[in-house]
């Protein structure tokens, strides 16, 4: 049986220590004498730790039936990385986007996280991000036994990854070599920039413990794991904001572009992650097994941002001595006028993000006959995120001690950007920023984002082994999933960020509420400011307690028909309109044949198949029908008791079918070399939040129906046809791999206007006729609908990947454990996206694409000592910076270097020392051109000292 052959091969690889690269998978089952002779000829190199993980990963790549990369751990807790995002960046063609200094989102082959599909134990995972891509920092590396990145799909894999699919695997106790293993991992952590941030914490810790055991004559396996991370999050940053205003500042009759402003801030906080893993396997018969597993993660982040937010004032500001980069103003003196809003806001923001991820599943595996295998899997994945964005604004008064304080109108701001270096800066009010007799709190707002996402899935797979010269086996299967996503917005606002209101007067600060904060290091020349104790300020301003945020139409909404509710702001109708649900039901089936034959007397293996995917997606909708009851208008009451009768609630959506063929071929050129080819049609579904609906529909007096929506439940998936070709050479102490890839991508999401859109067919409540203001009946007819659509214009992404790994065992004695592992990838694309945030629209590359990505690790092991230094370089790329809003910018190239050393004290105890971000690499971004600074953010180095104890 082929199934038996695979098991024999696995045993042979394990016996060879590093995977016995000289041994090829036999085409016929050997007898015991031949097998023994082969085993004697295999060179066994004794390696442990990092090198052992590398070679197991190469084994997995070599014998995979698709183009893939793998990370493998000796045991639970053996991976050194803080999260799986860090671990995955060691693989060829994979890079990370750092958030707060930590890798969170990964990019594969030049494509951003939205094109990456992820599974855990073969099951689709939902995300706390409110999008499709999971946040890998939610997954502790200590609880993951292996991770694979599938760069080419096969029909049996769940669809969804144009860039690739990441498969995370937790432990299987019955596959563990030991009868019982117990691992404890403890590390202390220190950040060397925390002392630059007021109230920044310097120290943290990581702790994990895990157990794997086999019972009842190895028929019952139990695996348990717990991992905790507590770490400070600190950064000092300058953030330039988008160029969204125009003014003729040179007097030549042509407008130049003005930035909204910039931020200079300290950021700090705490991140606490608790992860839990459990699995129980039962194999009462040799042909049947049942496994139930659970993964739970709780990731809480409490963060603050303190410093300045500078508003330059828009087109009405007075600009002197302008400095230009093309047609964008990158410096000058900005003075407040009676018409402008030029000001400096002292910000003391408080953000809290509570994330929960749960994944549960039960899988049954049954060899019905010697040829037929059935597997059935039932799973549930849920994720929820409660992000509370609390903002406290303070402004400069002429005299904060006055009975009726007045905003200081004398505002002059001088600045000059220095590209990827910190700017020059000057404020005429600088002395006032740290004076409680001048600074007053003017506004407080809370803006929660509450997301929940869940998918229930059922999967049935069949494998039938054949005794044929060409086809080794046939696979077929079906999968049904139900996904439910909801987004709830709410709001509380009091005061104004640009004025002192008489109806909601500002708060005068007292000495016990504030500390004077100085910038340090490279930022030391910026003015001092007041850091405000949020709780003390709010208790003084709201002695009865701060009201909780609610969903509300707002008192300024002209459609509200009853009396205002106290404490509700005027322009908050978005909190109702941006809340809603998305429903996605998917039925997929596939048929695949596994090949095992010869081509020109060379062994040829692989698979050929097709996957059919039927999708039914809908979303709740509030259609603005101008209060017409014939179009379904209803009275909708918000949480403040305000009533709006303009909207018609409903559910709208679409159904569609995809056929996804795929082929994977592996030709064995020699015992040690092989050639792979893969081709497939692939899809990535739109971000789940983009399928929500916030539609406004209008009917003119002549009956024309028109509408608009920033999202759309009619969006279709991204589509691509992709090709892979790779050459792999394996030798006794390493491997060399060269690969080419090409993706022809279609169906990008763009904002577009569809003429003569069929509103009725889409599910909108459109009447057959209306009565106009003159009382004349008019038949309705379809007009334009502006919304997010799939643009059929696409383009290619293509590139090359090189990877090399070797242990230099030929070196003498102490140096025989020296080794190197590295990869290089070059990626290019004809896809140009246009970014207007820097003023003039600028063509930019595909989001997430770095032309060059380089990883290199030099490692050494000798008599229990182990050390390695790793570097990750990526050339400039496009991603999203976080300012007042998310803004797409160009990120500068970066090189992140990590170091780790360890000593195996005895068979049970290993001591570890680790430094992340050894060179204190900052994040730097810009708007189209380096002269227009985006983000300059410095995080500091993280030091870890600890031990791993196992028995």
From TrEMBL:
| NCBIfam families, alphabetized | TonB-Xanth-Caul
Q: What is this protein called?
A: TonB-dependent receptor
- Species this protein is from: Alkalimonas collagenimarina
Regarding protein family, the annotation reads: Belongs to the TonB-dependent receptor family.
Domain (TonB-dependent receptor-like beta-barrel) spans 452-918
UniProt KW keywords: Cell outer membrane, Membrane, Receptor, Signal, TonB box
The principal localisation class reads membrane
Please state every residue range assigned to the domain named TonB-dependent receptor plug.
Answer: 68-164
InterPro entries recorded for this chain? Answer: Beta-barrel_TonB (IPR000531), Beta-barrel_TonB_sf (IPR036942), Plug_dom (IPR012910), Plug_dom_sf (IPR037066), TonB_rcpt_bac (IPR010104)
Compartments it resides in: Cell outer membrane
* Gene3D superfamilies the record matches: TonB-dependent receptor, beta-barrel domain (2.40.170.20), TonB-dependent receptor, plug domain (2.170.130.10)
- For whether the record's keyword set contains Plastid, the answer is no
Signal sequence interval, chain numbering:
1-25
Pfam families in the record, alphabetically? Plug (PF07715), TonB_dep_Rec_b-barrel (PF00593)
């Amino acid at each position: 049986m082929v199934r038996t052959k695979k098991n024999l091969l696995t045993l042979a690889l394990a016996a060879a220590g590093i995977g016995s690269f000289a041994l090829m998978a036999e085409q016929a089952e050997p007898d015991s004498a031949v097998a023994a002779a082969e085993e004697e000829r295999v060179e066994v190199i004794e390696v442990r730790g990092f090198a052992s993980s590398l070679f197991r990963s190469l084994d997995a790549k070599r014998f995979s039936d698709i183009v893939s990369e793998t990370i493998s751990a000796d045991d639970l807790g053996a991976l050194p990385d803080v999260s799986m995002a860090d671990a995955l960046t060691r693989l060829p063609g994979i890079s990370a986007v750092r958030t707060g200094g930590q890798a969170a989102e990964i990019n594969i082959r030049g494509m951003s996280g939205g094109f990456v599909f992820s599974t855990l134990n073969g099951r689709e995972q939902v995300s706390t991000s409110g999008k499709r891509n999971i946040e890998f920092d939610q997954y502790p590396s200590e609880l993951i036994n292996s991770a694979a990145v599938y760069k080419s799909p096969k029909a049996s894999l769940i669809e969804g990854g144009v860039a690739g699919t990441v498969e995370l695997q937790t432990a299987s106790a019955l596959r563990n070599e030991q009868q019982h293993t117990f691992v404890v991992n403890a590390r202390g952590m220190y950040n060397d920039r925390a002392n630059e941030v007021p109230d920044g914490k310097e120290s943290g810790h990581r702790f994990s413990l895990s157990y794997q055991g086999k019972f009842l004559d190895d028929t019952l396996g139990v695996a348990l794991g717990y991992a905790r991370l507590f770490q400070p999050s600190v950064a000092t940053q300058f953030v330039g904001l988008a160029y969204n205003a125009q003014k003729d500042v040179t007097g030549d009759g042509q407008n130049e572009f003005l930035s909204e402003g910039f931020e200079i801030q300290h950021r700090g906080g705490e991140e606490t992650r608790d992860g839990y893993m459990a699995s129980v396997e039962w194999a009462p018969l040799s042909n049947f097994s049942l496994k139930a597993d659970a993964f739970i993660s709780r990731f809480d982040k409490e963060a603050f941002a303190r410093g300045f937010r500078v508003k330059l004032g828009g087109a009405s500001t007075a600009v002197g001595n302008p400095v230009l980069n093309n047609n964008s103003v990158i410096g000058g003196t900005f003075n407040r006028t009676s018409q402008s809003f030029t000001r400096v806001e002292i910000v003391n923001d408080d953000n809290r993000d509570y994330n929960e991820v749960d994944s549960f599943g039960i899988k049954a595996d049954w060899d019905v006959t010697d040829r037929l295998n059935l597997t059935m899997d039932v799973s549930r994945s849920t994720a929820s995120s409660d992000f509370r964005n609390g903002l406290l604004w303070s402004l400069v008064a002429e005299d904060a001690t006055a009975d009726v304080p007045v905003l200081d109108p004398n505002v002059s701001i001088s600045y000059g950007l220095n590209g990827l270096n910190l700017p020059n800066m000057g404020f005429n009010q600088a002395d006032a920023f740290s004076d409680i007799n001048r600074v007053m709190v003017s506004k407080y707002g809370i803006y929660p984002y509450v997301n929940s996402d869940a998918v229930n899935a059922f999967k049935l797979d069949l494998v039938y082994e054949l005794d044929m010269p060409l086809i080794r086996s046939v696979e077929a299967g079906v999968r049904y999933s139900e996904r439910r996503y909801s987004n709830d917005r709410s709001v509380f606002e009091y005061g104004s960020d640009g004025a002192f209101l008489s109806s909601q007067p500002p708060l005068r600060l007292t000495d016990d509420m504030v500390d004077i904060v100085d910038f340090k290091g490279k930022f030391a020349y910026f003015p001092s400011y007041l850091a405000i104790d949020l709780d003390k300020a709010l208790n003084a301003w709201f002695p009865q307690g701060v009201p909780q945020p609610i969903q509300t139409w707002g008192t300024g909404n002209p459609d509200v028909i009853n009396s205002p509710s106290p404490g509700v702001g005027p322009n908050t109708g978005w909190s109702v309109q941006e809340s809603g649900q998305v429903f996605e039901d998917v039925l997929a089936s596939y048929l695949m044949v596994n090949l095992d034959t010869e081509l020109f007397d060379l062994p040829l293996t692989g698979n050929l198949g097709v996957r059919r995917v039927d999708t039914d997606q809908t979303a709740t909708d509030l259609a603005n029908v101008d209060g017409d009851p014939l179009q379904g208008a209803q009275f909708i009451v918000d949480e403040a008791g305000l009533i709006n009768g303009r909207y018609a609630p409903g559910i709208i959506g679409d159904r569609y079918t995809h056929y996804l063929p795929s082929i994977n071929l592996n030709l064995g050129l020699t015992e040690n070399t092989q050639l792979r080819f893969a081709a497939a049609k692939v899809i990535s579904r739109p971000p789940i939040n983009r399928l929500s609906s916030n539609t406004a529909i209008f009917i003119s007096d002549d009956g024309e129906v028109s509408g608009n929506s920033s999202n759309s439940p009619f969006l279709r998936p991204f589509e691509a046809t992709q090709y892979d070709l790779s050459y792999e050479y394996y030798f006794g102490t390493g491997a060399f791999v060269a690969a080419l890839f090409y993706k022809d991508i279609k169906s990008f999401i763009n904002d577009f206007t569809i003429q003569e859109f069929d509103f009725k067919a889409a599910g909108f409540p459109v009447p057959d006729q209306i009565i106009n203001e003159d009382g004349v009946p008019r038949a309705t007819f379809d007009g334009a609908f502006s919304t997010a659509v799939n643009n059929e214009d696409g383009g290619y992404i293509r590139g090359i990947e090189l990877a090399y790994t070797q242990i230099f065992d030929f070196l003498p004695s102490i140096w025989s454990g020296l080794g190197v592992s590295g990869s290089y990838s070059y990626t290019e694309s004809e896809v140009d996206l246009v970014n207007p945030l820097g003023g003039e629209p600028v063509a930019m590359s595909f989001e997430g694409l770095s032309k060059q990505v380089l990883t290199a690790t030099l490692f050494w092991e000798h008599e229990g000592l182990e050390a390695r230094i790793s570097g990750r370089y990526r050339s400039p790329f496009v991603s999203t910076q976080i300012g007042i809003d998310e803004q797409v910018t160009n990120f500068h190239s970066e090189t992140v270097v990590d170091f780790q050393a360890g000593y195996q004290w005895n068979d049970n105890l290993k001591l570890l020392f680790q430094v992340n971000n050894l060179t204190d690499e900052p994040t730097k971004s810009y708007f189209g051109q380096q002269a227009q600074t985006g983000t300059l953010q410095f995080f500091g180095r993280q030091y870890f000292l600890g031990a791993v104890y196992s028995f």
